[in-house]
Amino acid sequence: MVALNPFPRRSYTDGPTPLEHLPRLSAELGGPQIWIKRDDRLGLAQGGNKTRKLEFLVADALSKGADALITVGGVQSNHCRLTLAAARAEGLDCHLIVEEDLGPEGVGLGPAGANPPEFTGNFLLFDLLGADSVRVLGNGSDLLGEAEALAESLRAQGKSPYVIPVGGSNPIGALGYVDCAHEMLTQFAEAVLQPTNIVTPSGSAGMQAGLIVGLHAAGSDIPVVGINVSRSRVDQEPKISDLVDSTAHLLDLTPVPRERTVALGDYVGTGYALPTPGMTEAVRLIARTEGILLDPVYTGKAAAGLIDLVRQGRFGTDDTVVFIHSGGVPGLYARTQAFA
Ligand SMILES: *Cc1c(COP(=O)(O)O)cnc(C)c1O
């Protein structure tokens, strides 16, 4: 394992998140034994994977004297919700710049107002948690460019803003999942469990990159299978492996073999956040069999991938698969039509 203590860190969760066996889902699918890592139960308002990244990102911001956080995402961004919750907990200002969703067919980079957000789910929580500003731009806008421009104007007013990229996915944010990999390896040892695969949603790539680096650092060869939520395999894998390389570099590790990065693009459907039949089936199945809620944008599509890979025989009865539940459940209430 690699020491993370040289990096400043805040603590937003008490202890490790649970690692649970899913016996009814495993029996229903008739394939591998499936376990779930409950990162939906991380701290900050309603938890989810961004909490782990923010422990390092917000600590970095504080160590640099920041008094405001700026970040970007979709209108239902879990990352924006959790960045705002962390800002509230730390007494920092927080500004959000978000882009509207794609239209129903996944096409068109609409102008602002083409697909206005509903006042529900995470978008509701931006208001309740008292964001200092929320700007809604058209789909496809240059969010990070706008964030840098806002940072510049805040600096001109004497503030010290800190810009966090989409999904908190840079080497500092990925440290949260290097740590999660170590946390899981300890849990596997305690449970005398030998997972043959870890299956995770893959979006802005910080979670999967961090997991790969953390396993590599610990000398574990458990493969991490990413299920993409927004990109094809050829577009996603270089994003992940670039972040794997820069995170490994930050930690002074030996290079990570490129083959460790696997991210399947078969379960995206027509685009980011747009529902698929596999997603609705997976959300309903895991709710009914295990009483666990997934979300429609990330974990629902990743679980659809897991289920399909079991049905294809890619994971057999001798396998033990750990599925990462990365949170996102508040977004369920913003996408009820997918289930109607
Ligand atoms: C952001 C997010 C992901 C994807 O994680 P990345 O690090 O962006 O790849 C998965 N699940 C949920 C609920 C998220 O909010």
From TrEMBL:
Its EC number is 4.4.1.15. It comes from the Bacteria. InterPro entries: ACCD_DCysDesulf (IPR027278), D-Cys_desShydrase (IPR005966), TrpB-like_PALP (IPR001926), TrpB-like_PALP_sf (IPR036052). Gene3D superfamilies: 3.40.50.1100. The keyword Lyase applies. Keywords: Lyase, Pyridoxal phosphate. GO terms for molecular function: D-cysteine desulfhydrase activity. Residues 13-327 form the Tryptophan synthase beta chain-like PALP domain. Pfam families: PALP. Its cofactor is pyridoxal 5'-phosphate. It is an enzyme of class 4 (lyase). Belongs to the ACC deaminase/D-cysteine desulfhydrase family. PANTHER family: 1-AMINOCYCLOPROPANE-1-CARBOXYLATE DEAMINASE-RELATED. This is D-cysteine desulfhydrase. It comes from Brevibacterium spongiae.
